Amino acid sequence: MTTPLQTVALQIFGVSTGFITAGGIIALSYSTVPIFLEHPNEISLRHLNALFSSGSHIFPQLATAASTAFSVLAYNTPASSSLRNQYILAAAGTIGIAPFTILVMKPTNMTLKEIGEQGEEGIKKSGGEQRVQELLRRFGRLNAIRGGILAMGAAIGLKAALSS
């Protein structure tokens, strides 16, 4: 059982970590991807691969941390309380980026990664510059959706925290 102070700490941590992580993910879509589209594809893909690598060491862990905070809050909330279901939804929403990434984004991400690793030849094999631009735009849209999923989880957590 958590103390009232621990409950508040978990609420603040879960909500703030969820929103900050969602903001970081969404910012990539609306600030970084447009920059990639303005530069030669070979350079953009090299930078995108670096972004994939660094992002994979930050965002999943932060989403897991937020989800864990909401899970602990759900566990410590009486089963008869509607807040418990809200914390469960918040936990599912914040960790929801993992299945979305694997099931929906992975084909696009892996295609971009493979093209980037092959350089100019990969761009030609993929269907050319336009195809790469389409894939970059698709990545940007899917990434924004992923951030939105996480933000919805954080928003549900915020609602639950304010209702308690």
Highlighted features:
elongated, 164 residues, mainly alpha, 89% helix, 6 helices, single chain
Give a brief rundown of this model:
This protein has 164 residues and is mainly α. The protein is built from six helices and no strands.
Number of helices: 6
Largest β sheet strand count, sense and barrel closure: none
Show unreliable segments. Answer: none
Residue share in helices?
over 70%
Average predicted local confidence, pLDDT: 95
SS-based class = mainly alpha
Radius of gyration: 19 Å
- N to C succession of SSEs: HHHHHH
Oligomer: single chain
The number of strands is 0
Written overview of the protein:
This protein is mainly alpha-helical and 164 residues long. 89% of the residues lie in helices and 0% in strands. The protein contains 6 helices and no strands. It has helices at 4-38, 41-55, 59-75, 82-95, 97-126, 129-163.
What is this structure's SSE topology?
Layout: H1 4-38, H2 41-55, H3 59-75, H4 82-95, H5 97-126, H6 129-163
Helix pairs in contact: 1-3, 1-6, 2-5, 3-4, 4-6, 5-6
